[in-house]
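Study this:
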Amino acid sequence: MEQQDWPPEPIIRSTLFRRRHGRKSRTREELVARLEEANSQIVLAKKRYDRERNARLQAENLLEDRARQLFAANERLEKLNSELEHRVALRTSELDAARQQALALAESDQLTGLANRRSFTYRLDQALEHARGEGHKIALISIDLDFFKDVNDTLGHHAGDELLKQIALRLSKVVRKTDLVARLGGDEFAILCPITSDENEISYLADRVADALEKPVVYEGASLEVGSSMGVAISDGLDTSSQDLQRHADIALYFTKASGRGDWNTYEESMGDNVRERQKISHLLRRALDQQEGGLEVRYQPIVSLKTGKVVGAEALCRWTDPNLGPVRPDHFIAVAEETSLIYDLGDFVLDRSCADLKSWLGESNTYLSVNLSPKQLKDRNLIPRIRSILQRHSVDPECLCFEVTETLFLWDITAAKGKLDELSQMGARIALDDFGTGFSNLSQLRNLPVDYLKIDRSFLRDIEHDDRALAMVKAVLAIANGMNINTVAEGLETSMQAELLERAGGELAQGYHFAKALCLDDFWAFLALEEKEHKLPIRFGTL
């Protein structure tokens, strides 16, 4: 058998064909698969790209939004920072202003704008130290308004404040540029004055201050006349302290007040004794009033009808015998009472004691009790209630009372005083104007006051026996009173000739040593009993 190649060629061809074509088929499939896979990868890549692009865009947008937010936040922060800086600067300014204001308040009087006591004392110490170093002197003027309390009591504290402002303004205008004006409190002022040449310049300054404060202050149409009292102290060398200088000025001020107010005095060593004496009297008088048994008593001077010779009234006069001081002059202790406001309690004591003593006699045959009222009492807003209370306590009819006021009333606020006098008159009490014709009479004002009696001062009667002009003056006063339908009471009648001349001139009532001095209660009852028994007056009763 013929040997054949193996495999056979057909088989080889078939195999090769299959291999060749099978490989191609596999290659195509692979390519298709690869293409599909590539497409798939491209799609995936595209999706991934889109995702990444979207993510990037979102991130960019987010970053942009965040950037805008941060920018806006930064703008807000800058604005807040600017506002904060403004507020801090404003608050700092306010704190500085408050600090300056606090310093100003600490050194100045809030009402008047003048230096206050603290600042004034500091400046006084500095001025004294400087004066010691330079060998100079300084002066201190202490000022006290005489009737400031009465303005407060009658018109209220607002009026008092306005008055203080006006006084401060006047003081600031009259002093020199080198002087320092201060309000120490209440109605107390002070002026610190360097002495550049001689002490006469301080006298000139004190006169100018007194003139400025003497003029009335107008408040809501009312003319307020307060006046002032001043004390001047001058440093005497290296040993003068601020406390010494202030004490000396206060002593001089007190001396001025005790001497009648409305003036000024320079401190002298002897003034200290006078001040201490008055302070002692004030202390003892207060104790006497508190105890009601300190030597105070009320005495009664009869008021007599010149026509009938009958006693028609009595003036209640306070007398004081202190266990240590002995008898104290009325003008002395009453002046102290006026200065220290003890006059209110003293006035109540006199009215209460005299009503208790004479209530059984008052009202008989139209008799009356005459009691003195000081101008200061008339400024007391509680005066009328206090009088009513005392009269009610003793069951005394107001018609049995006569209240005496002095002519110094015209130096005060006449409107306020008139209001009190009108109230007393409406109660039924009588009003007498004491010391008429001694220098302050104002006939136009007298016409408007509810005056029932004019009391002719003793100075008019003293010379009528041998001086025709004195008698003419008495007749003129009597004519004025008669023309105004006002009764008259002559004070200080001492002789029968005076009584005769006065009666001929038209005088109605009189009191004085010609009839009797001021009598204690027992002697007053004895005087009335003797008068009733003998049907005539016992001349000079109780003078021995």
Observations:
- The longest strand covers residues 311-322.
- The radius of gyration is 52 Å.
- Residues 538-544 have pLDDT under 50 and may be disordered.
